[in-house]
Specification:
mainly alpha; DUF3408; extended; 57% helix; DUF3408 domain-containing protein
Length: 92
């Protein structure tokens, strides 16, 4: 592709408040519900990442939402989403 080629990207469509609320509820159900953590281990984050993630939990989560559960859900979702690829790469 030459340097002078201009790509056209679709214009993002406006998302209605109803859809945004539904999306927020799906996000909260996926990542901001408390997880029962047994046999826990420490995980370290940079200060910036920790502060940003904590902000999300405090602003979007309910009273019982916490950063540990948020991180647990995100890592589990990532491992699930990439399970097949991880298995393929592991066997290289």
């Amino acid at each position: 592709m030459s340097a002078n080629v201009c790509r056209e990207y679709p214009t993002p469509k406006r998302i209605s408040a109803k859809i945004r609320r539904g999306t927020l509820e799906a996000y909260k159900q996926a990542f901001l519900v408390p997880a029962k953590l047994t046999d826990r281990r420490a995980v370290y984050l940079s200060r910036e990442t920790q502060e940003r993630a904590d902000f999300v939990v405090r602003r979007l989560g309910d009273r019982d939402a916490n950063l540990s559960s948020f991180v647990e859900h995100i890592v589990r979702a990532h491992l699930e989403d990439y399970a097949e690829e991880i298995e393929e790469w592991r066997n290289l």
